[in-house]
Specification:
Length: about 400
């Protein structure tokens, strides 16, 4: 309960304290916890309602804030270098995957640099994607399929999120796939881990923590898929799996940015998933809560939304995640086959040796709005050439005025 209070999870604190009284009615301490929690919740609700009344906050934002706490994402002090940074082995594997998927780009040292302090720019290598030849506008750069993707519908293929062109059923269960290749891909990766498990509770996941309960459900399903892929690989730590080991979280030690924390969505549900998959988190330290939170932070920093016929979904494409951001991107992406496979293409002509960038936030936004939206990734102002140019223009305009 102290942890929930420290992370400002007042709604979770109230729910947990009430559960404690229900389970231990003779305890002398828990009733006072309920009283404290109710008082705190009411106080916080009144403060936020004041912001809404003054039109400083929307009702949806109030709900999201009220039912979420917050934490600063950071590497745990006991994490070793091999799970904090990408190893040479991981980088070699990613490079091999790029060579197999594309004839015109590779993973290489990026032009982007990390700021260790306001005065110092790090020489720590940031990976990026670089053109290996001249590329014409609209030319395909690479095609990037993934199994780490989910949609909020049982009427689409669970492996690729695509429509059911065919309905293929494996002998083990009644799960349908859109093709024999998808059914085999599922069997070779995650399906044997989840087959026969009672995971129906995820189908109706509803949470007050988010303005949209669908977002909570999709997030839980993606976490399930990633955990299943991890268990199938059977490595020493889920942080060393082929997907998670390449992903980086948004750790910004000099200007940390708060991220939402919800006890049910990010702790209880993942533990319940693992229990259904046969993992006891209290006996198996490989899946301790700090590991789950680290996975969550990496997914949050790398997943992207996908919508098919108004059906919402999300996914992490392993090669897509290696592209860095620019507010003036030269690469865009699309779903050619209405599934989770991403086709990345050039938005303009790209020269040999030029780094390729995507936009993390879309286009058409002003400088200040972009800065705000990008702060969770960078912990500092974006330093792409577009932002630098607009910053200089704004400074010049201010001087002129």
């Amino acid at each position: 309960m102290e942890g929930l209070m420290a992370s400002n999870c007042c709604a979770d604190y109230l729910e947990v304290s009430k559960d404690a009284v229900a389970k231990f009615p003779d305890d002398q301490v828990f009733p006072s916890e309920v009283t404290n929690a109710e008082s705190w919740f009411e106080q916080r609700q009144n403060i936020l309602q004041g912001y809404v009344d003054d039109e400083e906050m929307t009702t949806e934002a109030m709900k999201t804030t009220l039912y979420n706490g917050s934490v600063y994402p950071t590497a745990y002090p006991w994490m070793t270098e091999d799970v904090v940074a990408r190893s040479d082995e991981v980088i070699e594997k990613v490079a091999f995957e790029f060579a197999s998927a594309s004839s015109n780009c590779v993973v290489s040292k990026s032009t982007v640099r990390l700021a260790l302090s306001p005065e110092e720019v790090s020489e720590i290598d940031v990976l990026g994607v670089v053109a290996t030849r001249d590329i014409l506008a609209q030319e395909t750069v690479l095609v990037d399929p993934t199994l780490a993707a989910v949609v909020d519908s049982v009427d689409r293929c669970p492996a690729c999120c695509g429509p059911f062109l065919d309905k293929i059923e494996n002998s083990c269960c009644k799960t349908l796939y859109c093709s024999s290749s998808c059914s085999q891909n599922a069997l070779d990766s995650y399906h044997t881990i989840v087959c026969g498990k009672d995971l129906d509770f995820l189908l109706g996941t509803e949470s007050k923590s988010l303005s949209n309960s669908t977002e909570s459900s999709i997030g839980s399903k993606l976490f399930l898929r990633v955990l299943a892929l991890s268990l199938k690989e059977n490595v020493a730590s889920p942080l060393k799996t082929s997907l998670i080991s390449r992903l980086t979280p948004a750790y910004n030690p000099n200007n940390p940015q708060l991220i939402a924390l919800n006890f049910k969505d990010q702790i209880i549900t993942p533990i319940r998933i693992l229990r259904e998959l046969g993992i006891d988190v209290f006996a198996n330290s490989a899946y301790d809560t700090w590991v789950l939170h680290t996975i969550y932070c990496r997914l949050q920093n790398n997943k992207h939304g996908q919508t098919f016929d108004e059906i919402c979904g999300t996914g992490v494409n392993p090669l897509y995640s290696m592209f860095n951001h620019s507010c003036d991107p030269n690469i865009d992406w699309r779903h050619d086959d209405e599934n989770s496979t991403v086709t990345m293409f050039a938005e303009r002509d790209i020269k040999n040796g030029e780094e390729m960038f995507i936009s993390y936030i879309g286009k058409g936004k002003g400088l200040e709005e972009r800065r705000g939206k990008l702060m969770p990734w960078f912990g500092m102002d974006c330093a792409c050439h577009k932002c630098d140019e607009e910053k200089l223009e704004a400074m010049a305009a201010a001087i002129t005025i």
